[in-house]
């Protein structure tokens, strides 16, 4: 069945066709830019949506024009039986694309079952190619190896494979060229993300942000970059380039120096059943209670969208204090 026309629009006329679903606020990593070492106050188990509840929300959104899903967290792969959720979502009429954002630790074992269940593609976060540095940034040594994770995803048929690198001055910016060089031989799309000053950034400050212009200068040392359309699937906020004869593209995502709000087509579902209409700020509507009472959710979807802000205020901020991305399904 083809997708329904997009009838969910916010007060500024932006149509909503993309939902990011957080399945947990917990994580097996403690990335310096995302979570304090001791973790965060986790959501009570009773408040976390069951898979059937997530699927019911998607089932009610799809006829209004929802087409694309991304499963995220926290770390989504640590939630048991994630493939079951993928399988249930795959069966919802109108859903055309299901993607996953993961730190990749469990991909060598989970890529194949997730692909079998109907997952289309994956974004892998990787901030270093050096094992000891991965462990230092993630503050956990779980043996993550980007090449092993991405190769497993590739072998399982997940495509395209995107690699997300948060660039931090003095921490991993000396690996920008190494990451970019991976695209010469691998059909992976390596995207450099500007560090955002959100959450509990006790160790990282504004001084650690490396502007994208600087990232591109360092990449260009490898060869002349030409503009690229990027991967065919997923029209997110990245701009893409390609090195001569490279198999993959190089993307940049610039939350700190540009805003993408004008063309924002997405909303987020938190693990405890809140519809968040903006990554930053506190615009959210609780769906969980109405869902558990068996009430129709469309009025709440429309209420949430009526309140979707025109743009976020991150660019004006130079200090932390906003919720961590792991808590809001970043
Ligand atoms: N755990 C999964 C992962 O790491 O891919 C999914 C959730 S994670 C919150 C989603 C993405 O947000 C990751 O690519 C991560 O690097 C990015 N992220 C988290 N905090 C960030 C920050 N302060 N600045 C920039 N990117 C951030
Ligand atoms: Fe976990 Fe992802 Fe946050 Fe790292 S960025 S702590 S992997 S949720």
Task: Provide a descriptive summary of the structure in words.
It contains ten helices and twelve strands. With 330 residues, the protein is an alpha/beta fold. The protein has one domain: Aldolase class I (TIM Barrel, Alpha-Beta Barrel). The protein has a twelve-stranded mixed beta sheet with strand order 7-8-9-6-5-4-3-2-1-10-11-12. Strand 1, helix 1 and strand 2 form a beta-alpha-beta unit.
CATH fold description: TIM Barrel
Strand line-up across the major sheet = 7-8-9-6-5-4-3-2-1-10-11-12
Structural class category: alpha/beta
CATH class: Alpha Beta
The proportion of residues forming helix, as a percent range, comes to 25-40%
Distance linking N and C termini? 30 Å
Mean of pLDDT = 89
Largest sheet: 12 strands, mixed
Care to give the gist of this entry?
The chain is of the alpha/beta class. Helix content is 26%, strand content 17%. Bound molecules: S-adenosylmethionine and iron/sulfur cluster.
């Amino acid at each position: 069945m083809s997708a329904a026309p997009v009838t969910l629009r916010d007060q500024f006329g932006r149509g909503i066709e993309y939902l990011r679903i957080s399945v947990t606020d917990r994580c097996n990593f403690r990335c310096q830019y995302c979570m304090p070492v001791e973790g965060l106050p986790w959501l009570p188990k009773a408040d976390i949506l069951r898979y059937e509840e997530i699927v019911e929300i998607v089932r009610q959104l799809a006829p209004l024009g929802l087409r694309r899903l991304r499963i995220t967290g926290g770390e989504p792969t640590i939630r048991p039986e994630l493939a079951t959720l993928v399988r249930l979502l795959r069966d919802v009429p109108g859903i055309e694309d299901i993607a996953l954002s993961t730190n990749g630790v469990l991909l060598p074992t989970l890529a194949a079952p997730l692909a079998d269940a109907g997952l289309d593609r994956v974004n892998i976060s990787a901030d270093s190619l050096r094992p000891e540095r991965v462990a230092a940034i993630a503050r956990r040594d779980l043996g993550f190896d980007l090449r092993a994770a991405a190769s497993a995803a590739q072998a399982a048929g997940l495509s395209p494979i995107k690699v997300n690198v948060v660039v931090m001055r003095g921490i991993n910016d000396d690996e920008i060229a190494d990451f970019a060089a991976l695209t010469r031989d691998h059909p992976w799309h390596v995207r450099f993300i500007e560090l955002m000053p959100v959450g509990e950034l006790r160790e990282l400050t504004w001084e650690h942000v490396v502007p994208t212009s600087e990232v591109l200068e360092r990449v260009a040392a490898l060869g002349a970059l030409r503009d690229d359309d990027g991967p065919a699937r997923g029209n997110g906020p990245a701009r893409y380039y390609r090195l001569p004869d490279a198999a993959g593209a190089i993307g940049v995502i610039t939350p700190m120096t540009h805003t993408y709000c004008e063309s924002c087509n997405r909303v987020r579902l938190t693990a405890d059943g809140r519809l968040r209409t903006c990554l930053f700020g506190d615009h959210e509507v609780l769906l969980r209670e109405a869902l558990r009472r068996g009430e129709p959710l469309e009025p709440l979807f429309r209420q949430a969208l009526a309140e979707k802000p025109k743009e976020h205020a991150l660019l004006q901020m130079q200090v932390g204090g906003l919720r961590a991305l792991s808590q809001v399904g970043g």
